[in-house]
């Protein structure tokens, strides 16, 4: 089995999993006699922690001889909780997991829980290295980490205590990594970070994310598709807005960290934007880039949220024109201010999350219907799927993973888009006529 990585949560964890694999193998971990399983955990919700613990117990039952190492954000914030598990051999901090030396120094079986822990003070980390990864196993696109940590203290969020303060990969290191990836045949690059729009604040001259994006576009002309992971819209700078609006290589999809649509709840969350700020940003960007599509993180059932407040969040889906929703039922995280606020009953939280997801599903379905009969540039993924430029998923039987295929969206069947190569025997005019008449298939 060698070294197996089980990763939870965000794109950044996915990226770091490849660094972990490389460093662990370089340290000689995971030989035939004693394979290693590394759990790269997420701390964003209590459910994420519960799932990680469940899979750790299952992994030990299925692999009694394996060395099990737990790391990631949940391990950083709750190391003792994982060290107390008899199934776990060692717990590594978020920074330690990226170094071969950490894996060389792993303890053997038979030690106490406290001795299992190798977790440093994440707040003492002042730099983020531009780890070079040739590709991410099983993925058609390459993720490039340009930022880590967060200086903000939203009342619901434990992540700054798992990731530390905000720190940026220098522009030159990021550009050089992207050059190398594109030179090896990568067609789509995804810039990733914990609070990506804070990129550059700790670098000389305090550049902004827009400066980095424009530098990539200038210095890597062969790059076909540049995608941004989650951004905080209130921190989007003019250069970033200009790059998205003017360069077609920047994909027309933004995933926004909105969290709520009610001003009082946003204030209690200690967010930095108002409801109107979010609407104004979406309106401005759509005027600059009419084909843009928005995703968003939204929390249902935040403490003190009334039905009227929740209705404001529901309405935000239409007011901002949101399409791809990530809905989180509020989950109190020990150590955060929100955990000490008056909590809503769990059934209310679950019910509101279900309604918000249904609203998102309806918005996505309507968006998919509008794409039937249109010509799309599709990045082919494994398993017969692909992503349009606006991140909409479709089924396509063409090309190899990582290829960009010129396609037509031929039908919408059971909530799934079906795409075919543009030069196939499908008549675009016929399909467009069907779409106009509401016939999808």
Summarize the structure in words.
With 441 residues, this protein is of the alpha/beta class. 36% of the residues lie in helices and 21% in strands. It contains 15 helices and 18 strands. It has helices at residues 11-26, 46-62, 73-77, 79-83, 100-104, 113-116, 159-163, 171-183, 209-219, 238-246, 263-269, 275-288, 307-320, 346-371, 428-436, and strands spanning 3-7, 36-41, 67-72, 90-92, 117-118, 142-145, 147-148, 167-168, 188-192, 225-228, 253-259, 293-300, 322-329, 375-380, 385-387, 393-396, 404-413, 416-421. A 5-stranded parallel β-sheet has the order 1-2-3-4-5, with helices on both faces. It is globular, with a radius of gyration of 22 Å. The two termini are 44 Å apart. The mean pLDDT is 88.
Number of helices: 15
Helix content: 25-40%
| pLDDT averaged residue by residue | 88
Radius of gyration: 22 Å
Q: How big a fraction of the residues is strand? A: 15-25%
Structural class: alpha/beta
Give the SSE layout.
Layout: E1 3-7, H1 11-26, E2 36-41, H2 46-62, E3 67-72, H3 73-77, H4 79-83, E4 90-92, H5 100-104, H6 113-116, E5 117-118, E6 142-145, E7 147-148, H7 159-163, E8 167-168, H8 171-183, E9 188-192, H9 209-219, E10 225-228, H10 238-246, E11 253-259, H11 263-269, H12 275-288, E12 293-300, H13 307-320, E13 322-329, H14 346-371, E14 375-380, E15 385-387, E16 393-396, E17 404-413, E18 416-421, H15 428-436
Parallel strand pairs: 1-2, 2-3, 3-4, 4-5, 6-9, 9-10, 11-12, 12-13, 16-18
Antiparallel strand pairs: 7-8, 14-15, 14-17, 15-16, 17-18
Helix pairs in contact: 8-9, 9-10, 13-14
